[in-house]
Design goal:
Elements (H helix, E strand, L loop, with lengths): L1 H14 L35 E13 L3 H6 L10 E14 L2 E19 L8 E11 L3 E11 L4 E10 L27 E13 L2 E11 L7 E2 L3 E13 L16 E2 L8 E2 L10 E14 L3 E2 L2 E2 L5 E14 L2 E15 L5 E14 L2
Antiparallel strand pairs: 1-2, 1-18, 2-3, 3-4, 3-5, 5-6, 6-7, 7-8, 8-10, 9-14, 10-13, 11-12, 13-16, 14-15, 16-17, 17-18
């Protein structure tokens, strides 16, 4: 039961990082748990009737644009931004042994929004500190159907699909009485669709490899703005530092035998009944590559040249699991920052949280 619960925590965390908008101005989609990466979604699924809950924070620090850059680009829709924070509650449920569904409820905060302005040509240009935005964001629903679960080769593959609903705030205004642009609102005002796939492979008793690709088709939302389609691609190499593995199965309960999996989710073996219940502790170390490509933002059909691009993070992380509880922390550094035009770019990212699961 230990690794099964551990995996639920992983999937919840992964789903909780689904992006809420475009570019570095928005939180991402990724994961946490006992059997995969912290941002990478593995291919395993929860068992029928199981329920999971995750609470976590994702914080991205950006390189603020200089005053000179902002003043030189007045009228070009160039804005400064200091940080993006997403606090998320995610819920998951196993509909069948091969199909699970989750819901993500985010609270999004952005700080340090700056803009160069010149109200009168005869007056000097100045920098407006427009402050911060925060509020409830758009709710996402993601399904995962596992179509391959080969116990002999310890290989799994799943389809990913879902949608984002326009539940977030879209009418926040700054201290000057101006409505914030769509990219800074907690919600996008659009319906978006998710589709993709996930893959997991046991490499050795203590090693697992996980990868996923997720496409986001965005609709047009508030202020007649489409924040741009996105493609998220992730890979995670996970090593079980200590704790239970598939080669060391044992029961959590003297009353019954339970299924166990190692660092790779879903590869189960039946364990014999134990003589007494006991606690289980495990530590996973991982190294991930987390990438996101996003198209340019369009307002009234006109593309913003200062939007879109491609970013890849190198993200080491740790996850500690005790019975059906899991805590995790990941620190990401961008190794690729290819953005269009002039934009704030990420300098580092931290993801941390807890997850818990409940059997049927």
């Amino acid at each position: 039961m230990f690794n099964k619960y551990c995996y639920i925590a992983f999937w919840l965390g992964s789903f909780a990082l689904i992006p809420t908008g475009a570019s570095a101005h928005h939180p991402g989609i990724g994961g946490v748990g006992g059997a995969g990466g912290i941002t990478t979604i593995g291919a395993g699924t929860m068992e029928q009737g199981e329920f999971g809950l995750a609470l976590f924070v994702e914080y991205t620090r950006l390189k603020q644009l200089s005053d000179a850059t902002l003043l030189a680009n007045i009228g070009n829709d160039v804005h400064g931004l200091q940080s993006v924070e997403s606090r998320v509650v995610a819920l998951a449920y196993g509909v069948t042994n091969d199909f699970m569904i989750s819901m993500r409820l985010p609270f999004v905060r952005r700080t340090g929004i700056l803009e160069g302005v010149q109200e009168d040509p005869s007056d000097p240009a100045t920098i407006n500190n427009r402050g911060n935005t925060s509020g409830f964001g758009d709710v996402s629903v993601l399904g995962q159907y596992r179509f391959l679960n080969n116990l002999a080769s310890e290989t799994q593959a799943s389809f990913l699909f879902g949608f984002k609903a326009p539940t977030g705030k879209t009418n926040l205004v700054d201290p000057f009485g101006e409505t914030f642009e769509a990219e800074f609102q907690p919600g996008s005002g659009s319906w978006d669709g998710y589709f993709g796939a996930a893959f997991s492979q046991r490499l050795a008793p203590l090693w697992g490899l996980h990868a996923n690709v997720l496409g986001v088709l965005t609709g047009t939302g508030t202020q007649d703005t489409n924040l741009g389609n996105r493609v998220l691609y992730n890979a995670a190499l996970v090593y079980r530092v200590f704790g239970e593995t598939a080669n060391e199965p044992h029961s959590h309960d003297a009353r019954a035998a339970y299924a166990h999996a190692g660092p790779h989710p879903g590869m189960v073996t039946k364990a014999p009944a134990a003589t007494a219940p006991h606690s289980h502790v495990a530590l996973d170390a991982m190294l991930e590559l987390n990438g996101e490509w996003h198209d340019k933002q369009r307002t009234s059909g006109i593309a913003d040249p200062n939007s879109g691009g491609n970013t890849i993070y190198l993200s080491p992380g740790l996850r500690l699991t005790v019975d059906n509880w899991s805590g995790y922390l990941s620190a990401g550094v961008p190794v690729v920052k290819e953005v269009n035009g002039i934009q704030p770019t990420p300098t580092w990212r931290v993801i941390g949280g807890i997850a818990m699961s409940f059997g049927h």
